[in-house]
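Holo prediction — 3,4-dihydroxyphenylalanine.
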Amino acid sequence: MTPRANVDCVPCLLYCLSFAILINMEDLKKRISETMSFAITQIAELCSLEQLEGVRVAVLGRKGDFAQIAKMLGTVPPGDRAEIGQLLNDAKRQIESQFQSRKQSLERLQLQERLAQEWVDLTIPVSGVQAGHRHPVTIIQDELEELFMSMGFRVVDGPEIESEYNNFDALNIPAEHPARDMQDTFWLADGHLLRTHTSPVQVRALKKFGPPIRMVAPGRVFRNEEVDASHEHTFYQLEGMMVDRDISVAHLLHFMKALLSSVFGRDVEVRLRPGYFPFVEPGFELDIRCLVCSGVGCPVCKQSGWVELLPCGLVHPHVLQNCGVDPKEWNGFAFGLGLTRLAMMRYRIDDIRLLQSGDLRFLNQF
Ligand code: DAH
């Protein structure tokens, strides 16, 4: 009886089993479709890349929902596995593609936001920024270099830190010579000094190039002295020298006049008086009528109406000798132009301190 009963029960068991499998199939399909619609809604709604990635891992990751569902495939009858497998793969592919396109659009959005923040319109005219320009002393220096080059002079450079020999001895100013007191000197600890004038460049150029020579040497010079409206510790000079055969005071005057009429664009009143400089013989002071006050008297001309502008003379034979040049064969003239003072005359600046002040209200006038 019992076996029979058992045999009778087989169809029922099969029915029950297939029902269970049926439920399982439907359940699986339902889970797949629910998971998919959950994932797709999430993907569409989320706005951060991190959250998006979180959903992707939760659904498609190795331990994600679909991995769990895939494990259940084993309970599906072999005949139906293909269908469920297909369903699963389609769902995954769909989610993956939704995920990728959402990710791309989020990335694009982020980039746009970043660009909007960083965006700068380079074509907008800049306001409040002024272009720089040359300093008044530089303007004059450039002009004079041009002028002298057009007259066959070369422009020579020399160091601001000089030897005592080049600054003094070679220029016929030995130690203990009272002329050393004319120029208060900044001495360096090693015995060098800040050049007190551009004249040492004469020595360097004469030694280097030899005669015949025409040279100018513009540059910064330093004096250890009290600063006031007409004195600075740092200022600019332009040294000039011509050494050749049979040079006379007439040559000197010719070039000095060319220089002055070029700088002022007109004839200026000048006077020549004897002046003492150890490196020239004879030596002169070439003064010009003060252009700041038109000769009436002001702080720049020390109320005298005249400004010392161009000390000059014929190169002393000792200087030529010191530079290895035979004074019997060669002679020349030299001058030391106060570039800073010339700028003050030309632009009618009545206080030398303004030139180094860095004050833009002053500088922007040029
Ligand atoms: N070196 C002189 C100074 O600074 C200026 C000077 C005077 C230069 C006469 C010269 C010159 O070449 O001949 O005071």
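READOUT: The chain has two domains: 9-118, 136-363.
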